[in-house]
Amino acid sequence: MKKYVLDLTVKSVERLHERYVHIKLTDEKPLPQMLPGQFVEVLVGGSPTTFLRRPISINFVNKEHNELWLLVATVGDGTRRLAQLQTGDRLNCMLPLGNGFSFDRSADAAGGSCDDANKVLLVGGGVGVAPLLYLGKCYQDKGTDVSFLLGARTRTDLLLLDEFRKYGRVLVTTEDGSDGEKGFVTNHSVLQQEHFGLIQCCGPTPMMKAVARYAREKGIACEVSLENLMACGLGACLCCVEKVRKECKGVDDSPVAETPATNVCVCKEGPVFNIERLLWQN
Amino acid sequence: MAKLDVQIKDLRLKNPVMTASGTFGYGLEFQDFVPLSEIGGIIVKGTTLYPREGNDYPRMAETAMGMLNCVGLQNKGVDYFCHHIYPQLLPTGGTYIVNVSGSSPEDYAECAARVDALEGIPAIELNISCPNVRDGGMAFGVTCAGAESVVRAVRERYHKTLIVKLSPNVTNIAEIARAVEAAGADSVSLINTLMGMAVDIEKRKKVLSIGTGGLSGPCVKPVALRMVYQVAKAVKIPVIGLGGIMTAEDALEFLMCGATAIEIGTANFIDPAVTMKVRDGINDWLDRHGVADVHEIIGAIY
Predict the structure, then answer these.
(1) Do residues A122 and A216 share a domain?
(2) Could you give the 3-state DSSP secondary structure of residue B104?
(3) How confident is the model at residue A17 (pLDDT cuts 50, 70, 90)?
């Protein structure tokens, strides 16, 4: 997919509770094609300490209004500055980057069994719910039934629930029990009651590891979206590497090393990985 | 339009703007943003005789106006480069230079010899200054004897333009440059990254997997300029300057300090099209000041 550097216009910045902002961007020209699970590298101006671009996942693409949505948790200087953007400001974005979730090829392509191929569970935690919204929309467009299982520490950390409800059933867990079922996403009763053909997941690493463990036990195909620290976003600097299994197809067709694992760039070969490729030992 | 082409021994560059090794992949990653054939020279990733997995994650820490990295020369080896990557480079029309690294003079020489056989690669840049590998790398670049031993070994097996990339992590960089020149280098490029570190105060741990890393970005530019100036005065071979160049003005400073060409590194991460902006900016400056040929400003401050 062709990549672009665009000065997008900020259409709105909505503060969702104290730690999150929802930024809607637009452009005079139609936005480039983007896939769910891909990300944008945004340039944060005017800071002596935020030097590198910030990778932010694509939350939603509204084709009708020519909008790109970003959901940002304010965790450091860079994201705090993003939160201060005003309507009409320009935001320099490099996009679309990374591979995205394998939604267009269905659960079958991700290794799911055919019987369950049409039942997809999208699991998100915290701000990691971001890419699942557009993914859910793309599934809906295809006529695939999705359920969202969204986890947070507490009720106010549950983000964009009304948006998610437009594209599928929404199930919720909170660690303090303030909304939905109490506990972690992996404790939710739906996992005992129903069977899914494919789980796609984005959230904190411990959560994704727990989801991956569940999926492996149940023999369900599972993809996770990683957020390793990165610089270039283009596969050039080799900073964001994740160790993956060498023997897995598609990793590397060259017989160049005897090592059992190899480092690949999360920005280029990811951020979405099938858990079978990762070396996560549960 | 000023005359921008420069010559480094037999290596002809259509303009003095190159990309620094490890910051521009093989150029292919940036094709959507820049016409590769318009860049003066593309110095591809550090290449070694055998494949290397590099260091563990985390390999990067952001710093004020810069970054630390400890990638550790991850690459698939010279044979993979020759058979799989080199054929993809030729159709782009770019001028490619291979950055060669190793853990012994023999490794360097063998790797260089295999690149020598590639008709479309007119030069190599010898990396005797990588701060992120234990075996070799910077170990060779911090003493005159070490630097000489590698350059001599490579010179015997490599017959095209030989650029040697110097480490700033030394007491007297001019001395190393002179030693490298005497051993047969056609050019020196400097600076490689400055060794540094960062601490995660919440975890009370080093940020980078191996503790230390190489500092790059605009924060190193004054140090790089000073070293380029010192080296340009000390040697007769052409000097290539790099270290924190973000703009045409930065590049012009290096040229005026005596650099015949410059490399852009970390800035590629911020703006993937920066090389063209720097080239155009140099040209505009020359035009504005009535300078017909870039050579007129090389070493202008002395």
Answers:
(1) yes
(2) coil
(3) confident
Q: Which of B130, B144, B219, B257 is catalytic?
A: B130
Q: Taking CB atoms and an 8 Å cutoff, what residues of chain B touch A50?
A: 62
Q: What is the ipTM of this complex?
A: 0.94
Q: Looking at residue A177, which CATH number applies to its domain?
A: 3.40.50.80
A194 lies in the same domain as A248:
no
- The number of folded domains in chain A is 3
Lowest mean pLDDT segment, chosen from A94-108, A174-188, A200-214, B245-259 = A94-108
Contact B148, B183 (CB under 8 A): yes
- The pLDDT-based confidence of B52 (bands split at 50, 70, 90) is very high
Boundary residue ending a domain (A53, A74, A97) = A97
Q: Is the pLDDT of residue A122 over 80?
A: yes
**Which residues constitute the domain of residue A93?**
4-97
pLDDT for position A115: 54
Mutate to test the interface with B, among A1, A238, A240 (most CBs of B within 10 A): A238
User: Any idea what DSSP says for residue B146?
Assistant: H
Extract the tokens encoding A175: 């660690």
pLDDT per position as a tens digit, A66-79 = 999 999 999 999 99
Last residue of a domain, one of A97, A129, A161: A97
Dist CA B108 CA B129 (whole Å): 13
Whether residues A53 and B269 touch (CB distance < 8 A) is answered with yes
Mean pLDDT of B251-274: 98
pLDDT of residue B131: 78
Closest CA to B52 of B77, B71, B70, B69: B77
Distance CA A124, CA B129 (A): 44
pLDDT, tens digit, for every residue of B65-105? Answer: 999 999 999 999 999 999 999 999 999 999 999 999 999 99
Given A51, A231, A259, which is nearest B65 (Cβ)?
A: A51
Mean pLDDT along residues B99-124: 97
DSSP state of B49: S
The closest CB to that of B58, out of A229, A237, A256, belongs to A229
Whether residue B70 lies in the annotated active site: no
Could you tell me which residues come within 8 angstroms of residue A66 by beta carbon, excluding any fewer than 6 positions away? Answer: A26, A27, A30, A31
C-alpha angle A111/B76/B266, rounded to 5°? 100
Residue whose structure tokens are 């058979």: B83
Would you call B63 helix, strand, or coil by DSSP? strand
Instruction: Place domain B6-297 in its CATH homologous superfamily.
Output: Aldolase class I (3.20.20.70)
